[in-house]
Amino acid sequence: MTQSSTTHHYQKLTQHFQKISHFEHLSALGDWDQATMMPSGGSEARGAAMAELAGHIHELKTADFLEEILGLAADEQLNTEQVANLREMQYQYFQANIVPVSLVQSKTQLAYQCEHAWRVQRKNNDWQGFKPNLEALITLVKEEAQIRAQAQGLSPYDALLNKFEPGMTTARLETVFGSLKSWLPGLITQVQAEQSSEKPFSIPSFSTANQEALGRDVMGFLGFDFNQGRLDISSHPFCGGVPGDIRLTTRYDEADFTQGLMGIVHETGHARYEQGLPKQWRGQPVGGHRSMAIHESQSLFCEMQLGRGNGFLTQIQPLIAEHLGSVLNADALTNIYTRVKPGLIRVDADEVTYPCHVLLRFEAEKGLIDGSLQVANLPEFWAENMKSLLGVDTTGDYQNGCMQDIHWAVGELGYFPSYTLGAMYAAQFRYAIEKSLGSVDTLVAQGKIHAVFDWLEHNIWSKGCLLSTDDLVKQATGETLNPEYFKRHLEQRYLK
Amino acid sequence: MTQSSTTHHYQKLTQHFQKISHFEHLSALGDWDQATMMPSGGSEARGAAMAELAGHIHELKTADFLEEILGLAADEQLNTEQVANLREMQYQYFQANIVPVSLVQSKTQLAYQCEHAWRVQRKNNDWQGFKPNLEALITLVKEEAQIRAQAQGLSPYDALLNKFEPGMTTARLETVFGSLKSWLPGLITQVQAEQSSEKPFSIPSFSTANQEALGRDVMGFLGFDFNQGRLDISSHPFCGGVPGDIRLTTRYDEADFTQGLMGIVHETGHARYEQGLPKQWRGQPVGGHRSMAIHESQSLFCEMQLGRGNGFLTQIQPLIAEHLGSVLNADALTNIYTRVKPGLIRVDADEVTYPCHVLLRFEAEKGLIDGSLQVANLPEFWAENMKSLLGVDTTGDYQNGCMQDIHWAVGELGYFPSYTLGAMYAAQFRYAIEKSLGSVDTLVAQGKIHAVFDWLEHNIWSKGCLLSTDDLVKQATGETLNPEYFKRHLEQRYLK
């Protein structure tokens, strides 16, 4: 018997998942176009076409023959990588099949309505309007969590976490985040005291065109290949497209170029991960990104570990001077990009205060799912925790409080922890790189940034989903998630 | 029995064709993106995704249940418009099913290879390289024509014409084009003699950005709604997208803005037709464009009947002055846009000589399909006919002779006549408009261009495929295709 005939069920599966990836390619294109190019008049037809496509992809992922053939393939003579691919296929099949179609549809519909209303309600600080919508949506999310939990033998919130972080548990997060909560608020106070003597900077205005030209050059410095992707504008920055054709976006504020520029650095991190995924596995489940936390670890590695470091800022200062004029030296840039200031908005938060926003949301989500927190009590919970974690007052400010994020308005619970897990992994990867290659800041200052990316490509990007998250991190750094590196990183960078 | 239950087979068909239109939406988006936005590294994955999508659309159009249900729906109590929709469904089903999948696949594959090689061979004037590829492809086209002919009781070339012009026949074209051939070469000689005393113009250079800004303003003047479409750049101008989101493109030559600008006017004609198709029939076969000749009639109405007229050029002269400076007055513009000069290249031809390029191709295609012309003799045929029709010599110049068009290199025969039929319909529509509203040039000069478009919207665009081409034209103008109006138009504009 030849190898191909002994694996023919597995081969049939690879063809089927390749087909799915072709339709997902079209879905990624439609999403990108909608956010960057589509005129308003196109939304009705696009909405219908995208819904049709989503339905078709769901049909393919839940095709009747899959269950049997996934079982048969498991008995075939597969090599290690094929076994990993089959495991990811089983995971995708499970995720697509676990929730009844009727629940998926009601949740999609309610989430659409809730989000639509939220866009106006948030602007109007209209908590009373948002509350009943969120309550109805959370009821469905709890139902979904219950179904997922039973099927996997997990707690309901664990089941939601597993949509984004396969293998992650509430218990583990409680340990990791509990430690964070014990030292971070104190660190923030300390850093603020140290920075209080620094004088504020005034940042001149620059045209969008100049900022975009600068952004492209910085992307080039970060090794982005423009033959395999684009940079465009959208109201919410994202990294989309497909490996080989990564579409990233940012937005420009003429009055403050620093946020848009760092947004580009962040999305370039996502982009390089996607571009660096294993080419030989493109279109197969095992060829995708490992988890959302690992994805965020790559964007945050670029933005936080590299981007806000003095080595990087010294290197890109001449590019800034070329496009915007010599208005800020590397020290001024470093000061701007390491300024710590507790605020109301998660997406505007600095590296040090950001995890507090995640801690609060993690606790809130756990409570909403286990029933210990009611939607009606969310503003109160929010105000208390923002006060204790960050010392800021959000009483009565719903739009900049519990209504600020889109996640809950679309019924997406369990995602927030990925941001801070990503920041922690990024710090851990940096430590591992420095152990073998020496200081990252020094490498960058010496023009050897490629050595840092080579390490990431070899240890993270090229692995796709071949390993579990724990195995991936252990193979790359010698241990599984260890939040100590994140603490060490913040102390080294922010305490003088 | 309610109306809905007496038409439930028909209703099922409308749902199925709506679904097809959703996937065709994605196909249009993929095509547009590929030509305008996609980086080179994206082509492999995109090619695979688009092939998957094409296969899926073909599956939907040839679904097993369609034949029976199309028959059952025909016995239901349908109103006139539903009957027309069913007729178009039957037509699409027939077109998708008539050619065996194996032949479609071999032709697609061979066409892909032939085109790929042609792109290089054309540049190198390599007729000997192109010839065997074209011979192989023509063999398959003849096979396709034979199958289509037998199924429809038509001649093979008629069957190819019917892919683009339902109802058109070789015999009718021979009458129409035969008449054209009898007077057009004489007219060209006469016009050239009259224009020989006019002095040539020198056109200054303008930046792409200024030309694009001008183009947008001219599109606005032509009533293009930018909430329902976009203008971008591609190497070959086209009008794509979907109604509600029309994507048109042009290319800019900094040394000569006149071609790019008229290209925009041309594509805007296509775009307004698509934007004006009946909204209540979007996604249904009867809601689409009537035929390629009618599509070309709308672009050529904009470009030739309106765009090269003194009324239009007088109106847009201030826009040109605003964006490019006051370098050309309306008379100079009129002279530039009505200059007649026989040349080698169809797509560069003026309004008067263009039909000669089509006459030649029509004769060649007939011969290639009925076997009276061999591929090997094409260059000789080309040289003789270019000499007799336009007085130019193409001997040995294959790249600007029979290798200039992409159509044959991808195995598409039967399309060329649509261009000249479109020019004729455009002249006939103008005559009908003038009978009821007075001179089009005067209307445009008086700022009443909308009255012209209102007529087109009412009589052509909003009809979709509700009527046959002959009925559409008869209802709009009182008679079916009458090439006399085209003759009259050329004589009025070009003979002093």
TrEMBL record, chains A, B:
Please give the function described in this protein's UniProt entry. Broad specificity carboxypetidase that releases amino acids sequentially from the C-terminus, including neutral, aromatic, polar and basic residues.
Q: What is this protein called?
A: Metal-dependent carboxypeptidase
Q: Which reaction does it catalyse?
A: Release of a C-terminal amino acid with broad specificity, except for -Pro
Any single GO BP term: proteolysis
Q: What is its EC number?
A: 3.4.17.19
Catalytic residues per the record? 267
Q: Would I find Transcription regulation among this entry's keywords? A: no
**Keyword Metal-binding in record:** yes
One annotated GO molecular function is: metallocarboxypeptidase activity
**Pfam families from the UniProt entry:** Peptidase_M32
* Essential cofactor(s): Zn(2+)
Concerning its family, UniProt says: Belongs to the peptidase M32 family.
Q: How is the cofactor bound?
A: Binds 1 zinc ion per subunit.
User: What are the record keywords, sorted?
Assistant: Carboxypeptidase, Hydrolase, Metal-binding, Metalloprotease, Protease, Zinc
Q: Where does Zn(2+) bind?
A: 266, 270, 296
